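Summary for the lay section of the report: proteins are chains of building blocks that fold into shapes. Here we show the chain for DUF4232 domain-containing protein and then a coded description of the shape we predicted for it.
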Amino acid sequence: MKSKLTAVALAAVVVAGTAATAIPASAATAKAEPTRCHTADLKAGFAMGDDAKPEMEQSERQTQAYIWFTNQSRRTCTLSGFAGVDMVGAQKTDGTWSLARSSEKPTKMTLEQGDTVGFSVNLLPVAGSTPQKEKFVPAKFLVTPPDETEHFTLKWPFGGQILKQDGATHPGTYLNPVGL
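The coded shape description reads as follows.
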């Protein structure tokens, strides 16, 4: 019944000789909010600039590696939350280490076509004298965008070793949300 009344009211405006510029609210097209980015919308990689490389040769303090996502789709999309990051070790004893998340609060990031956003991974490198069983030697990072199930496989390009804390409650190696 409502659509019939709308059509009758619109016809009355046209019959009266007035241009029909009013469009019923149900027919108006509002610009839709962007939806989340999917793995297929994105590219991923490690930031490789001199100021972005982790200092893996030292063992006195944490260092950071940076991973980026670029929107390669033709649409605007959003990312919010934490990526999933699993480190795959180079040694047979390393296995796969799913990184813990920081306590930082995520924010929604809007990416237009070609925009890039990153996140940091805090790492705790170890000294060469550390016993081998306490060392994790990264080979690959499996990086899954927030709220997705498909991942990117990124080869670890920086060398070094990380203190193996894959069972720790508060490990020194963990990741931050997208945008931090």
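Put simply, here is one thing we learned. Residues 1-23 have pLDDT under 50 and may be disordered.
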